[in-house]
Amino acid sequence: YRIKRAGGGYAWFDEAKDQRSPVEIEQLTALHHAIERDELRLVFQAITDIESRLPVGHEALLRWERPSGVVSPLTFIPLAETTGLIVPIGRWVLREAARAVQYGQISRVSVNVSALEFQQPDFVEYVETVLRQTNIQPEQLWLELTESCLLETERYAVVIEQLSALGVQTALDDFGTGYSSLTALAQLPVKILKIDRRFTAEVSDFTGPGRRALEVLRGVVTIARAYGLTIVAEGVETEQQAQALKDIGCTFLQGYLFGYPDPLPVGLPQYHNRDSGQQRTSLSG
Ligand code: C2E
Ligand code: MG
Ligand code: MG
Ligand code: MG
Fold first, then answer.
1. pLDDT of 155-173, one tens digit each?
2. What is the pLDDT of residues 184-199, one digit of tens each?
3. Taking a C-beta distance cutoff of 8 angstroms, is the pair 144, 113 a contact?
4. Which atom of ligand 1 is nearest to the CA of 43?
5. Is the separation of the CB atoms in 28 and 20 below 8 Å?
6. Of 112, 142, 146, 252, which is best to mutate to test ligand 1, by the most ligand atoms within 8 angstroms of its C-beta?
């Protein structure tokens, strides 16, 4: 069967060659219609200032609400990434997240961006369009990139600089999980570093391994701060972790201790494309 590509045209998927399970194939077909069927939702989780304990912004996290139940992004984002569907989905996410700021429900939003989205030649242009259409300030938008960007720093650095010139800050997400290298980090002009929650989980006991994990993290945070980065620790669940992370120099904290990812208290009005007057719901649009 075939699936529409983001930039036009089609990608073909040979079931045998592609080696996808029937479940994945069914999901992919359904995911293709997720936007037009109005099945995508954003939930928002606070990013909290360590001193004031007030939110400095919220991370937008995507949910796919199928009639059969909610599907985790850990399942469908990888599927969307390997097929290119992540590009139109990501555009929906970015616009919807910006609209949450536009309608005053949150003061700043941090949006996850997949490598493939970031590589689109018109990515920066799309960000500009969204800023213009929603009339939000560039400082009210953060973009989160995953660590795989550290593999090709030159390529991403150019785009990050362009975003930075617009006033949009970029964060490196999930730091410490995969390709992390402090050298590569120095070559990427990101302004924010998000420490992966696996690191945070390790600092939960302060005897033995927990003590050592905390000292390693202290080293990473110290170096990152020397590069001028703002540090966000993810997955903070206990007061003890919050204190330890504060002591080693983290600036902002995110995790269940401060709030779960939640829908907005008031739903946003439906989006209408101002240019055509038509509702923009198609994945291919
Ligand atoms: P992420 O960007 O690292 O997001 C943080 C994840 O940690 C979220 O999982 C969040 O619900 C979870 N989390 C937050 N606080 C805690 C905590 O205290 N304890 C624990 N155990 N978990 C916590 P979620 O929502 O399932 O998202 C998983 C991943 O899916 C995200 O990881 C991100 O990589 C990806 N993702 C989500 N939404 C989008 C999106 O709109 N676009 C793209 N490209 N990726 C997305
Ligand atoms: Mg993230
Ligand atoms: Mg993360
Ligand atoms: Mg993650």
1. 899 999 999 999 999 999 9
2. 888 889 999 999 999 8
3. yes
4. 25
5. yes
6. 112
